[in-house]
TrEMBL record:
Any Pfam family the entry gives: rve
GO biological process, one term: DNA integration
PANTHER family: TRANSPOSASE INSF FOR INSERTION SEQUENCE IS3B-RELATED, TRANSPOSASE INSO FOR INSERTION SEQUENCE ELEMENT IS911B-RELATED
Protein name: Integrase, catalytic region
GO molecular function annotations of the record: nucleic acid binding
Gene3D superfamilies listed in its UniProt record: Ribonuclease H-like superfamily/Ribonuclease H
Integrase catalytic domain mapped to chain residues: 98-263
């Protein structure tokens, strides 16, 4: 083994590091949470998760544990905008003006479309997010990027939430969102359209960050051989995102947890 006698006896005399049962449980939980996030949890987010589980830990300890367990989150790449405006269609005013924090649910929704690559070809995903809690309240995925794609996502959101008339739906100026068909759907629901300015990617930054998380924290971590596999994987992420993923804007609660906590507060009031 190419080890000298003195080196062996020196190693043999060293005290053995005994790992307690509690520490072993902590290690197992860190591995479990990291695996559940598909390797996307950094030490800052891991601290939040562990504290929710009752562990009083800091970043230094968690960073040390993750280093020891060789758990390293991968960095996210920039998000690329996909939709383009059809100039013959009408454009709505920007009612949001980068105010991404409405005071209650079903006041402002935001939508966008992104592309996802599979071994069988491209898929396109349209989402509707309630900006109050960052919850995805409607989504639809298909192999074609059409007005029907975004319409079905909005229909699912409307059927789930049943919002009052006057809700604002914010999007970019893509041809699907400026189409007459989608405009009529918004009007039938009593929803007011709002659209970001030309070339201002930050006008829908919250949804763009969601797409970044979906792709680089989840989709890109495994092979996506078929369109059906992609649908199932997107479904799995929607469940993880809404129920498990913590948001600093929500006081480090998941979207569903945040909505439920605010509902309890309002009921007590």
């Amino acid at each position: 083994m190419s080890v000298s006698k003195s080196g062996y006896y020196d190693w043999h005399k060293r005290p053995t590091n005994v790992i307690s049962l509690e520490t072993l449980k902590l290690y197992r939980l860190v591995r479990q949470l990291f695996k559940q996030s598909r390797g996307s949890l950094g030490n800052r987010e891991m601290v939040k998760k562990l504290r929710k589980e009752g562990y009083q830990v800091g970043r230094y300890l968690v960073r040390k544990i993750m280093h020891r367990l060789r758990l390293k989150a991968t960095q996210r790449r920039a998000y690329k905008v996909t939709t383009q405006r059809k100039h013959s269609d009408a454009v709505a005013d920007n009612l949001l003006n980068m105010n991404f924090n409405p005071v209650s649910a079903n006041q402002v929704w935001a939508g966008d479309v992104t592309y996802l690559k599979t071994g069988e070809g491209w898929m396109y995903l349209a989402v509707v997010m309630d900006l109050y809690s960052r919850r995805i309240v409607g989504w639809h995925i298909d192999k074609r990027m059409t007005t029907d794609l975004i319409s079905k996502a909005l229909m699912k959101a409307y059927n789930l939430r049943q919002p009052a008339r006057g809700l604002v739906f914010h999007s970019d100026r893509g041809s699907q969102y400026t189409s007459k068909q989608f405009g009529k759907l918004l009007s039938s629901y009593g929803i007011r359209a709002s659209m970001g300015d030309v070339g201002a990617c930050w006008d829908n930054a919250v949804v763009e960050r969601f797409f970044g998380s979906l792709k680089h924290d989840w989709i890109f971590k495994v092979a996506q051989p078929t369109r059906e596999f992609m649908k199932q994987d997107v479904t799995a992420y929607m469940k993880y995102y809404n129920l498990e993923r913590l948001h600093s804007a929500n006081g480090d609660l998941s979207p569903v947890e945040f909505e439920n906590s605010q509902l309890k507060v309002s009921n007590l009031g």
